[in-house]
């Protein structure tokens, strides 16, 4: 295998990996994060609230403990 063939194969593999990763990752990260947050919240591991934009926001643990101490 000469230098030019090896370079062409390497660049082809790198390009294929880039386009495959770009294709499979487009738009799915948000769905995965949302699913994880919903699961953790439904099982009682985290507390969230909706902010003014309608996005979920994590409640700091010190606020959760403070609410528990007050009740």
Average pLDDT metric: 86
Strand order of the largest sheet: 1-2
Gyration radius, in Å: 23 Å
* Anisotropy-based shape: rod-shaped
Residue windows where pLDDT falls under 50 for at least 5 positions? none
Task: Indicate the structural class.
Answer: mainly alpha
Largest sheet report? 2 strands, antiparallel
Measure the end-to-end span: 75 Å
Instruction: Give helix and strand order, one letter per element, not per position.
Output: HHEEH
Please state roughly what percent of the residues sit in beta strands, choosing from under 5%, 5-15%, 15-25%, 25-35%, 35-45% or over 45%: 5-15%
Features:
rod-shaped; 71 residues; mainly alpha
Task: Explain this structure.
The protein has three helices and two strands; from the N terminus they run H-H-E-E-H. The protein is mainly alpha-helical and 71 residues long. The chain has one domain. The chain has a two-stranded antiparallel ribbon. Strand 1 and strand 2 form a beta hairpin. It starts with a helix and ends with a helix. The model has no long low-confidence stretch (mean pLDDT 86).
Topology (SSEs and partners):
Layout: H1 3-25, H2 28-42, E1 48-50, E2 56-58, H3 61-70
Antiparallel strand pairs: 1-2
């Amino acid at each position: 295998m000469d230098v030019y063939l090896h370079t062409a194969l390497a660049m082809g593999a790198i390009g294929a990996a880039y386009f495959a990763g770009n294709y499979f990752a487009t738009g799915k990260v948000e769905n995965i994060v949302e699913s994880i947050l919903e699961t953790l919240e439904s099982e009682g591991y985290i507390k969230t609230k909706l902010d003014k934009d309608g996005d979920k926001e994590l409640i700091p643990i010190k606020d959760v403990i403070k609410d528990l101490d007050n009740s």
